[in-house]
Design a protein that fits this description.
Layout lengths: L4 E4 L1 H7 L4 H13 L10 E2 L6 E5 L2 E8 L4 E9 H4 L2
Parallel strand pairs: 1-5
Antiparallel strand pairs: 2-3, 3-4, 4-5
């Protein structure tokens, strides 16, 4: 399987600044792992959207996949109570 390039939307990168340091390192590791495995165990497709989500404790990473160009686009990162608003 090809390794995918990861792009992070500016607003998602800014959301990373608000995440506590204890969770930040693990979230960054999960994002990096999407380059190797775009649809890891536990990912879910969001209803009505062409996006998926993965979890890390109370945080969610929302992303889309462009299989044609081999790109994973990180769209949104945040706490579960705020991410779907």
């Amino acid at each position: 399987m090809a390794r995918y390039r990861i792009t992070i939307k500016k607003s998602a990168a800014k959301e990373l600044e608000d995440i506590p340091k204890k969770d930040l390192a693990k979230i960054v590791k999960r994002i990096q792992s999407l380059g190797r495995s775009q649809r890891p165990h536990g990912c879910q497709k969001l209803s009505g959207q062409n996006r998926l989500r993965i979890r890390h404790r109370d945080y969610r990473i929302i992303y889309s996949i462009d299989d044609k160009d081999c790109v994973v686009n990180i769209v949104k990162i945040g706490h579960r109570r705020e991410i779907y608003r």
